[in-house]
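Q: Could you write out the predicted structure for this multi-component system? I'm mainly interested in how the pieces pack against one another.
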Amino acid sequence: MIEEAIAIIKGMATTLKVALKPPVTVQYPEMKRPVSNRFKGRHELKRYENGMEKCIGCALCAAACPSDAIFVEASENSDEQRYSPGERFASTYEINMLRCIFCGYCEDACPTEAIVLEHDYELSFYDRASAIYTKDMLLVDVPVNGMDTPRTVEPGTFDRSIPDMENPK
Amino acid sequence: MSDLVTLTIDGVEVSVPKGTLVADAAKKIQIDIPVFCYHPKLEPVGMCRVCLVEIGLPMRDRATGELLKNEDGSPKLSFRGLQTGCTVAVSEGMAVRTASQPVKEARGAVLEFLLSSHPLDCPVCDKGGECPLQNLTMAHGKGTSRMAFNDKLKIAKHVPLGELIYLDRERCIQCARCIRFQEEIVDDPVIRFHNRGRSLEIVTMSEPGFDSYWSGNTTDICPVGALTTSDFRFGARPWELTPAASICPHCPVGCNTTMSTRREAISGGRKVIKRIMPRQNEAVNEIWICDKGRFVHHFADSAQRLTTPLIRKDGQLVEASWDEALDLVAGQLQKHKSAAAGLASGRLSNEDLFQFQKLFRKGLGSRNIDLANRQLGGGEIVAQVGVGSGTNLKDLGKGDAILVVASDLHEEAPLWWMRVKQAAERGVSLVLVNGRRTRLDKFAAHTVNYEPGQGLMTIRRLFGLAQVETESTRDDQLAAAAEKLIKAENLVAFYGSEGLTFDESDALAKLLGNLLLIKNGHNHTGRANNGLIPVWPHSNSQGAWDMGIHPAYGPGYAALETPGLGAAQIYAGAASGDIEALYVVGADPVGDGLMADRGKLSFLVVQELFLTETAALADVVLPAQSWAEREGTYTNGERRVQRYYPAIPAYGDSRPDWQILAQVGERAGLEKPAFAASLMFKEIAKAVTQYKHMDYRSLAQVEKQWPDVGGDDLYYGGNAYENGSGLGQQWMAAAESGAVERFEAPDIEPNSFESLPLIQTRALYASGTLTNISKVIEARLVSPTLTVSPADAARLELSDGDVVDVAVNGASVQAKLSVSKYATVGLAQLSGVGSGFVSGTAAAEFNRVVESEKELA
């Protein structure tokens, strides 16, 4: 008899304890919880500090993608119309967010660290076509002190696609 | 066999012909010795050293000469360090180690050395994914580098060698495959090495840069991404491309090709042809194609293509539905019946051509069908004494002969030029009988340049000389040539129609047939590697003969009792009103100057890819599919029937030619159209006796070819080489199954000229409906050019660069004058104008219109 009473009191105490704690849920969408640094959300195409696009249109992300969500078409850069360092840039870059499984293989495959899965997770669409993110939607804003692309540059200044690598030690 | 040599490679015994190189011998038993500079089609040079292997030779006792044995009885071998597997020929008893520790170390070292100055830009490199350097590094490389990255060479990455080929100097590993290809295989040494050591680079020495009809092949054999074509540069990654087997639609050689296609956003989501590469067929094009075959494909994806049927209403061509257009065409044709005529082109497939003649002969009861522009005669002669089945120009060697008459193979059929040239280098006696100098002269044993208008006479003399057995009187070139030809073990004769009228070329074919029929020890007809090869103007002119696109022959060369009207009579009939309805398929007689306008035709229907000049005058225009969108077969000049496959989806509402013709036929009372091209071909096989052993399945058969390029390994470069889609089948000439009688060659009076005579020569890059659309070769298109020798120019008081008005038989054209010391004296050559301008060798008038700027300066 007493044992039962103790059990009830214990249970009520737990209830009381939790009831007095601040709530875990937040008032989404008014309030948003910060995500972990390694969270894999919507992709972004990054730029160098000078504003040049990091993406060189090599399509290795598309090759690595297990769900065939990425489509890349490359074109040739010129010093008058330069998008990225080197000879090649992505003239078309599309990710189908309905197909993407946010595995991050594209990030791993990218030789220039151009594509990064960032922290935006609010991806919802009214129709399938709007699930396709095009290059202008994915490309980040031009950093301060940077210049937008395409731009005219001095010949010979940006002639290598891949940034210099660290020497072997 | 005595000329086989047995050796062991990694313990596996293999017997190969004497003279085989170690690398090739290993390849035969699927042991891959890596190579960069070596290529089975090129002479070995041993420059890159990656093929280093250990080679042991059996030891002999110096005194007795006997083989020394180990204790266990096996022969004692002496290994003397590493040797290059690509330069050492096999010898009896040789033992090769390809996977021992020293070999592995040497390979790793060579790769490390090559990579020490090779950029790490595989992600942006067009070769990435099909790159031998990439693959060999993955297979044999060390995985890490000891070299400092910032010591890497930083040199030019964007060097146009011409407007077609770009060089990336950083990527070049200096194997010289490209340079050797240009020198050895095609005799166009327009690129070479410049400087030495770390400053070594490839430069072009021609103007315009990389001036060769073969430049694209260097990008295929380049083992890295140093050479790329401007057409495909950054176009797609190789793994994204879908291959489709095809046949080149440009000339009678019928090169096997692979089209790489991809769906593209910039083309509005359409699947388009990204590049064309050769597909291995050792009997046709080996692993090469000319630049025309490689770059002239953009017409298939052109926005100028016709997409819907057009019907003329109130003087305007307006869009219409297929049913409406087909009903109208069938109704009109039936109204005119035997007053209807049909003109087809030699570019159509066999299925199209067969259905075309069926529509006219069976559906309408009209016999008036012909090719729109028949330039070369002799199809029925070729059917009897054409080259024997199993012919491969590569099999010709010492003691054999090739005769080329009235043709410039380099411009008309580049691959044949290459193979004839190579045959001559192997020791084949090459005899040229032409009206002028050509690029083959250099390789010929005997060159006879006849006087203008004397071509037929010369061949008649050659035939006469060949019949005479005596040898003492043979001092002139022609007699010596005749002796060579008649004594040859194998004899192949090419003939074209340069400087000849149609009738002359027809007589020429007969004379050459008779020449081949002379029996003098060797039979020159009815055997493989013997017989006649016509240099037709189009890819399927041969098929047009076979399918009976001829006023006098039905399918399979069945002679008709009452022949219909030929093209010339049809054009005259259209002008006079005797022909009331005309159906033109794939040809542009108005644009080619064969027909002035639609004359008194009451109905003109044109089936085309583009709105040509003829189509613009038509009552109904039907949009056809290009060769890239559909299935079909072409028959090449060697009578090899080859199948091509669809690569891209149909453009607009276009339909295959045979289907349109069959749908018109259905409305005109013929049976329902076949469901597929393969069923059409079955019908052909029934009607054309020569094709009776063939169907789409047998045409798709393949067998192992040597050298073994393509497949899984990429050592020899290019994954497009693999042929899994058919080698084609040659049909048997009549001489192979029975005796052939001599031909009656008509006597045609030779012409003689008082003033400078004119011939029309063909150019590979002649401007035309299909070529004009490919922007990459725009700069190389031949504008109207008149070429004369300096002596003739002086006589006409004209100078280099003048614009000259050339008048022949009432027609005239303006051409730029080129005075060349290589031009034949006493003959003016006109190139770059419509194919129907000059017939045979003609008297012409030359008047200066604009004086050359050079003189003014």
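A: Regarding packing and overall arrangement: The two ends of chain A are 75 Å apart (CA to CA).
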